[in-house]
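hey m, so remember when u said the tokens were messed up on ur end? i reran from scratch. heres the input so u can diff it against urs
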Amino acid sequence: MVLLIGNYPLDRYPSMQLFNDLMLRGLTAAGVQVELVRPEPFFGNVFPFGTPGKWLGYIDKFVFFPFRLRKRLAARPSIVHICDQSSAMYVPVCCGRAPIVVTCHDLFAVRAALGEPVDRVPTWTGRILQKWILQGLRRADALACVSSATASDTERIVKRNGAQPKIEVVHLALNFDYAPMPQGEARKKLAAFFDVDLPFVLHVGSNTPRKNRPGLLRIFARCREKWNGQLVIAGEVLNNQLRGIANDLGLADRVIEVENPNGQTLKALYNLATAMVYPSRLEGFGWPIIEAQACGCPVICGNAAPLPEVAGDAGLYHDVDDEEGFARDLLLLGNPTERARWREKSLANAQRFSRQKMIAQYLEIYRGLGAAI
């Protein structure tokens, strides 16, 4: 039996909840007995937002959950798989019970706690937490990294002080049925959100600085006189600072926000978009890239690792500061012939990221650690 350790729901990491579900469904479909356990909100529900909720959530995660976890471990699972490196502080609880695999999506928080220049400054409690996480990673039997870039960070940081976990690259798979759909169906799904008769370019992400939304707005502003389209921002809505930038650039009437769309809405967006622009400065993988490509939506993105590893020969790449280059390719994809060419390349590249392939790689790791699965 595989025991999956998932994420605390109130931490609000939707991509990690998707990965928890992806592993559960994938292993089940492969005929593997699997159970997903995770810290459940109790004290955290008293104040689900803000600092009080964060501290009360620590009681749920660090006091109550280890007791529940030990009860599950008493059943002697064949393997313990911690689905997100941010939960690696549970490794010591699991040691000696079964081989332990941890999926590393990125090490940005650990790097920040070590003083490396990433887009966050940890609090003193955050540095303590990341120290615990790093100690847990060093005691795991295997670390499955979602990209070669994450594997490189993991090799450099985790394998200090003699730690020797096995490090493997296992690319993420598509987490939803992203695929081409009839344009009429896509238009019906999006009609409630904005005027779908106008063309649009899409961005999927959040306001965290590494996503580079100020650059995104400037890229789109370079095209506004030459292209009568809209910019659709899906995911987290713009904060006041970004809205100010949009206003200063004269984009107030050209930006559409679709807050936290579900899979069906996102699928329709990818299918109708002229392109997805993804000028991110720092990524562990870049899930929206393969989601867009699976729907035939061309992707214009940064050229720093791991984005070329993910987008393959279907990506249109630029240095993130080359905003003129991004804008030039966006205008290029307004040409139906060019867009059709990149659409076919995108569909072909997305086939590399199937759930079956990802699960097969995890099963190989489990068996390599001696799990009878």
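this time it looks ok to me. Residues 2-173+355-368 form a domain with the Rossmann fold fold (CATH 3.40.50.2000). if urs says something different then somethings off w ur setup not the seq
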